[in-house]
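Request: Mind sharing a record?
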Amino acid sequence: MNLSFFIAARYFRSKKKRNFITILSRISMIGVAVGTMALVIVMSVFNGLEDLIRGIFASFDAELKIEAVVGKSFMTNEEWLDSIRNLEGVAILTEVIEDNALLDYDGNQMIGRIKGVSDNFLDQDRFSRGYFWGDTTLGTQLNPAAILGRGVGFFLSVNLDNVNVPLKIYYPKAPRSAATIDPSQFYETATLDPVAYFAIDRQFDDEYVIAPLSFVRDLLKYGDKRTSLEVKVAEGYTITEVQKKLKEYLGDDFLVKNADEQHAGLIRTVQMEKLFVFLTLTFILAIASFNIFFSLSMLAIEKKKDIAVLKAMGAPEKLIRRIFLKQGALIAFSGAVIGLVLGYLVCFLQQTFGLVSLGISSAVVDAYPVKVIWSDFFWISIAMIGITLLASYRPAWIASQVDTVKEV
């Protein structure tokens, strides 16, 4: 066994009557364990929230979204659309026309966002998270239907069972040079049958109405223009490789965004919060590790005679420093292992049994989401190694400077 480690382990397991230093070492170990456990739990909660956000957005957004770099719409034709459908890795291509419009139901009005989609929209695993109730179709050519966000439906007081009251959509016409006093000349209007609600996230619930593409195209007078195209990736292909192929095929005039890029601001905010929480808790852990510094300093004072004897026997200063560095490492390592195990256990219990509830009856999930990512354990371990070295170096250096002549 390595000599420095052997001596450090003996000091760590010391059970003398004068055991104040031993008690202080155990307190240091408990402090490290609690801090490490807190880091594991908090990081896992942030991972769970990030995963939940991605899952919620995936219920409404496409895996890949094609938009024009300039302007809110672009021209299409069947030949061009077929060429995209035939690209390797593209399973489903959904055409989209999306814009703001005035919504009216039985005299209740609001500004919402109408999203016209082609018939295969619901084939892309839409509304797999959250809540959905009502009919899962968008009606027929003669009787187009609408799927409303829950917030839109509640604000307009929509009754899905009342088939006699339609949802009216108003959209402003392009301005004309000829003056007119007839208000109806300033907007297009059409009606939809509300048949279903969805509830995913307030960002979508309070704003969106899903309608057939042909209905929105005729109302908005878009013709062959589309605001975006949504792509579902075929099995056996990754989103990254299909995104790369689409970018190469479409050129610089189009943006091809994956799910994270469609909501880059929110995802980046969650990741930044996670980073700052990690740094904050690491700083608190570093302050707690001052116990290691004090326990090693007191140990160095208590063991001056032992150190002097070792030096007299020919032990170099390097060996003395290693003894105290390894003593600090044993304290930190023991606490870190206990903290990592306890943190993982708490996360496992939360994942399995949902011990801590959100306390919100209408939430998409009942309990706080957690997700253990093993790379977090690596970074927590790296942080602990750095903190241990900083806390142990000074006492180890002091111990190595003991004067052999005075102490023996």
